[in-house]
Amino acid sequence: MKHYLLFLAILISSLTWSQTPTANFIVSDDILCAGECISITNNSSSNTLAYEWTLTGSIPSSYLGQDPGLICFNTPGTFTISLTVSNTFGSNTASQTVTVGQIPSVNATLSDTTSQSVIPNPANPPIPPTLIVYNPSDYGYVEIDDTLINMYEEAYLYAEGFPAGGSLMWYPSGVIEDSIFGCSPCAGGDSLTVNPFYNTCYFVSYTTANGCTAYDSICVDVRFRDFVKVVLPNSFSPNEDGENDIFRILTNIDIDQDFDNGFTKEGGAIAEIDMRIYDRYGKMVYRTTNPHEGWDGTYKGKNVNPATYTYYVSYRRIDGRSDELKGNVTLIR
Prior knowledge:
Layout: H1 2-17, E1 25-27, E2 31-33, E3 36-38, E4 40-42, E5 50-55, E6 58-59, E7 62-64, E8 71-73, E9 77-87, E10 90-101, E11 105-111, E12 117-120, E13 131-134, H2 136-139, E14 148-150, E15 155-162, E16 167-172, E17 180-183, E18 190-194, E19 200-207, E20 213-223, E21 230-231, E22 235-236, E23 250-251, E24 270-278, E25 284-288, E26 298-299, E27 302-303, E28 307-317, E29 322-331
Parallel strand pairs: 2-10, 14-20, 22-29
Antiparallel strand pairs: 1-4, 3-8, 5-7, 5-9, 6-8, 9-10, 11-15, 12-13, 15-18, 16-17, 16-19, 19-20, 21-23, 24-25, 24-28, 26-27, 28-29
């Protein structure tokens, strides 16, 4: 019985090796972008003695052996990958196509931040030259080099990708969750009006139909330091009438950043804070490290007496600038 099984195994092996091999392979991706690489898995039959790869449009362009490793495409187009396998009884070829997309380009610029832009008369200017006023809403965006604006001013961003027909997205500060839709499919460029209250970079992505993406960015600098105001009131009245009930640090930057309510929302420009309040005996009656919280005039859950209290506040703004405030506040009931 053992001799029979051994004979059968030898017969099957002989039959396998006496046949023409079968070429077969799969690629890791058949749609990619210029500059990307793919890998190949060779699944050809085991009776193969020789492997010959023809790798059109790639690096390398050919290979003799079982596994060509990573192959990379730097030029857009549709290319054919062929594998020819052979042994003493013949050969067999298998082929697959790979589509390589063009890497797009995108350019983001900052346009004029005023309603009008003044440029020299372009048509044979007299002496002295005159100035003509153009309205960007009528004539398009006027690109400028200066990226510095005052707080609460608007900046006009513009981006355009090539080739046309792709999708454009904006990412304030590069945060994907805060993405802003631009256009899709884009016949031309897209504009975005922004009013950052501190230095902010805006990233833009442009993706073609074949999934290839290009990126650019534009940074807007804001005169933050000269415009932020940080103050503390000199009195408050925690009588639950909805007005001046809480003693807290105030800024002219809203917590919700919509710039509509000035000092009526707290701590919008403060990143870190340490506020301590003491009574006239030097006992600390309140402390917070949350810039959006304040003192409600209680100590250990009980109302304190009307009096003048001393506060010490150290803080760091969102632009990194630190400072300290010291003074007195009068509690009125």
